[in-house]
Amino acid sequence: MTNRFSLAHLTTLGCTPPEMTYLAARAGYDFVSLRPIYMGLPGEPNYALAENKQMMRETKEALAETGIQLLDIELARICDDVDPKKYVPAMEVAAELGGRHVLSSIWTNDRDLYMERFIELCELAKPFGLTIELEYVPIASVTNLAETLNVLRAANQENAGLMIDIHHFHRAGDKIEDLDAVPREWFRFLHLCDAPAKIPASKEEMIKILREERLYIGEGCIDIASIVERIPEIPYSIELPHNKRAQELGYEEHARRCLQTAKAYFEAYSFQKR
């Protein structure tokens, strides 16, 4: 089995998409996972490529020069106050850059609304040949595997799938054996990282760890091997933000160690795909 890895946006948050692409190539990645949808979060740069034509050209050149491929773009959130049509320019960017998937998550408790908007998002993505990968987040509105599968089954969209984040899977308390019931075609990539065994009691601490203090693969206590062996062979996007290490090592060395530890972990196990 040949594992393929993507460098996710949050791992090298301060790098522009072209910088991140060149960095990913030097560090040995196969893909990049970019965030050309600006979310307006505190301290987060704006990499909206649809609005920044120069950065878009530079990103396209970086992908062509390095041979790195765009795996996915993020994050098409389903919210009370965001029209899914707002994401169409980013979908156009993804299609032009050869991307395959759009990552989405749900941040409203209004089920009728989020079902309607999720289905609309899937329909908007179809002309671009893109899939919509639904990720659950313990601090969002759809918070675990069961809820996410319920959405996907109810939506019944051929281009919709499930994106498991190893961190969120652990924090949600999901059971590894429940992955066996997921249709194999719903798995297209996953987010890889590690974390301490103890699950934070407060939302603030949860946010701090998931955005600033994730651990290298094999460094924490998540049973990654048991999760991965139940999932088909798909790309692994390493989403492993760690502010202190990125500052001390630099983004490139941090990204390189993320990949090195992941490869070492996978080499230590023989996964039997189901």
Automatic annotation (TrEMBL):
It holds the Pfam family AP_endonuc_2. Residues 23-256 form the Xylose isomerase-like TIM barrel domain. It comes from the Bacteria. Keywords: Endonuclease, Hydrolase, Nuclease. GO terms for molecular function: endonuclease activity. The keyword Nuclease applies. The keyword Cell membrane does not apply. This is AP endonuclease.
